[in-house]
């Protein structure tokens, strides 16, 4: 996903051991069938999302809203455990090529339609179809029939069958012993019959009809607001809030506007501009309104690997060696961020390989110049550094640009734009230079960094050469692909993790991505008005369904 308190993360064996027993998603849900609402309106600000359609959502605001509107088979706890939502059970065959899910009965969409096995099959096919042009369709790529949906020659997955209204059988093209984890992604959401499969569906994207704890209150008011109300027909534990109001802010000053709005009482939750972190901590921590957490995200400089000045390993190494991460962490981030030396974050301790990126450990001017000379990066070479505005990146991006100019003599052209514009440009066939890039896991496995960001199947170039997927670096290494594919097919967690580590080492040796900082998140929360603000979810968002108004 595009993105002081430590989380404990549990991966791998947590779900592959799911045999066929029902788990906690259904048990106890009936306790809240009555009016459990505590009322209240929770207000936050955000930038305009790219999409809130569950089959296409891929960046932070879109994921926040899609998760509020839709509930799938599985979800992730804040601490990185996969847990059943609408799945009563999940089981696989011995070879991990066939999975069977039992769907909780008697739940429905907010328009009254039943949420049955067919609704899931419909939603998955819709997300994978060519007409959806979804950047996250690759999450479904392992299912048989994916290629036919991608080229538009089919409207259903040949590998998905529904023997009865409450059973989904999934046949995979390749073994995947962690497939169950992927069903927590919004691309695996069920959709009602009103959602169109195999054709453009703008109307549904403007006002999605879902089955989540909240539903749309009217349509998306572009560049103004997206409002949600509690879904009183929700099939699991009902939300307490009456409403959630998301004010869409100017992308150039969004974090500052959130921060100012929180102080003025306009917002109940806010990001904090980087220069204001110490001030905010000093003011709001004593009030118990300050929140900090090391999360499962990572920050990178994304080099375009097939075009322009970063299309060689030496060029990418030169840039990495030239960056003084420690100086930026201490100066720009005031100690609130830590330098990164890996692709897979420390939040996955069994797979974490500290200092895997040798060029990331310490700035080395001599080596930076040596690799620049090998790459033909001569002083005066122009390189574009693109980033999204309004989200606290200006200061550190400027610091990196100055270091590249000072160490290598490059002419760095900074190019700030709104987030949807940045994402679109990264995908373009003419993309060049480097980009500010971040990634937060969609589900709890190191594979969710390696496959989406670096596997060739996640690049999926169209006829014009545009990338339709999250491998924006255009990394293409058949040996890396083979390692990741083999790991997915391996049941033993230790053996699987060892292969993931080997694959990460291979990509790091190629300098496919340039790590910058591990991700720590800081928020301001109106704990004086609301309960349930003691954590953020796996996607680094407020847990809307657990927030309640204080009486």
Automatic annotation (TrEMBL):
Q: Which Pfam families match?
A: SBP_bac_5
Residue ranges for the region (Disordered) are 27-47
| Domain Solute-binding protein family as annotated: residue spans | 83-460
The cross-references to PROSITE patterns, in alphabetical order and at most eight, read: PROKAR_LIPOPROTEIN
Keywords tagged on the record:
Signal
Q: Mind telling me which CDD domains this protein's record contains?
A: PBP2_NikA_DppA_OppA_like
Q: Point out the signal peptide segment.
A: 1-22
Q: Which SUPFAM superfamilies does the entry mention?
A: Periplasmic binding protein-like II
Q: Know the name of this protein?
A: ABC transporter substrate-binding protein
Q: Which organism is it from?
A: Streptomyces yangpuensis
């Amino acid at each position: 996903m595009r993105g002081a308190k430590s989380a404990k993360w549990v991966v791998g064996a947590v779900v592959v051991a799911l045999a066929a027993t029902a788990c906690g998603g259904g048990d106890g849900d009936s306790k809240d069938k009555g009016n459990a609402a505590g009322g209240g309106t929770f207000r936050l600000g955000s930038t305009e999302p790219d999409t809130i359609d569950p089959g296409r959502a891929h960046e932070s605001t879109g994921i926040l809203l899609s998760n509020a509107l839709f509930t799938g088979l599985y979800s992730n706890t804040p601490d990185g455990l996969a847990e059943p939502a609408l799945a009563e059970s999940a089981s696989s065959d011995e070879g991990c090529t066939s999975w069977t899910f039992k769907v909780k009965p008697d739940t429905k969409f907010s328009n009254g339609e039943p949420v049955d096995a067919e609704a899931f099959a419909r939603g998955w096919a819709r997300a994978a179809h060519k007409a959806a042009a979804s950047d996250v369709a690759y999450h479904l790529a392992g299912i048989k029939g994916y290629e036919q949906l991608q080229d538009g020659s089919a409207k259903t997955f040949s590998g998905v069958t529904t023997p009865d209204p409450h059973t989904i059988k999934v046949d995979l093209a390749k073994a995947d012993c962690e497939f169950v984890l992927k069903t927590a992604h919004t691309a695996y959401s069920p959709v009602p019959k009103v959602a169109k499969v195999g054709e453009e569906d703008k109307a549904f994207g403007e006002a999605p009809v879902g089955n989540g704890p909240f539903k749309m209150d009217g349509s998306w008011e572009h560049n103004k607001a997206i409002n949600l109300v509690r879904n009183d027909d929700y099939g699991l534990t009902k939300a307490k809030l009456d409403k959630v109001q998301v004010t869409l802010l100017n992308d150039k000053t969004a974090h500052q506007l959130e921060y100012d709005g929180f102080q003025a009482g306009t917002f109940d939750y806010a990001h904090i501009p980087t220069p204001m972190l110490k001030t905010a901590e000093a003011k709001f921590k004593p009030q118990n309104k300050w929140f900090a957490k090391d999360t499962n995200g990572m920050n990178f400089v994304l080099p375009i690997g097939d075009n322009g000045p970063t299309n060689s390993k030496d060029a990418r190494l030169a840039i990495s060696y030239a960056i003084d991460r420690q100086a930026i962490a201490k100066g720009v981030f005031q100690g609130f961020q830590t330098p990164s030396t890996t692709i897979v974050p420390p939040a996955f301790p069994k797979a974490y390989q500290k200092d895997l990126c040798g060029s990331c450990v310490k700035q080395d001017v001599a080596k930076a110049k040596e690799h620049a000379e090998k790459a033909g990066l001569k002083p005066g070479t122009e390189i574009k550094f693109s980033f999204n505005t309004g989200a606290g990146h200006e200061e550190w991006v400027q610091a990196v640009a100055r270091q590249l100019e000072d160490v290598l003599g490059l002419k760095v052209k900074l190019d700030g734009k709104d987030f949807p514009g940045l994402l679109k440009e990264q995908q373009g066939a003419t993309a060049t230079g480097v980009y500010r890039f971040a990634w937060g896991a969609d589900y709890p496995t190191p594979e969710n960094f390696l496959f989406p960001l670096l596997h060739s199947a996640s690049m999926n170039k169209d006829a014009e050469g545009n990338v339709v997927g999250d491998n924006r670096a255009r990394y293409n290494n058949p040996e890396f692909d083979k390692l990741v594919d083999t790991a997915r097919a391996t049941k033993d967690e230790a053996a699987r993790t060892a292969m993931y580590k080997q694959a990460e080492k291979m990509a790091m040796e190629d300098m496919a991505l340039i790590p910058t900082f591990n991700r720590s998140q800081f928020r301001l929360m109106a704990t004086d008005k609301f309960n349930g603000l003691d954590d953020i979810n796996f996607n680094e968002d407020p847990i809307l369904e657990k927030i309640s108004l204080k009486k």
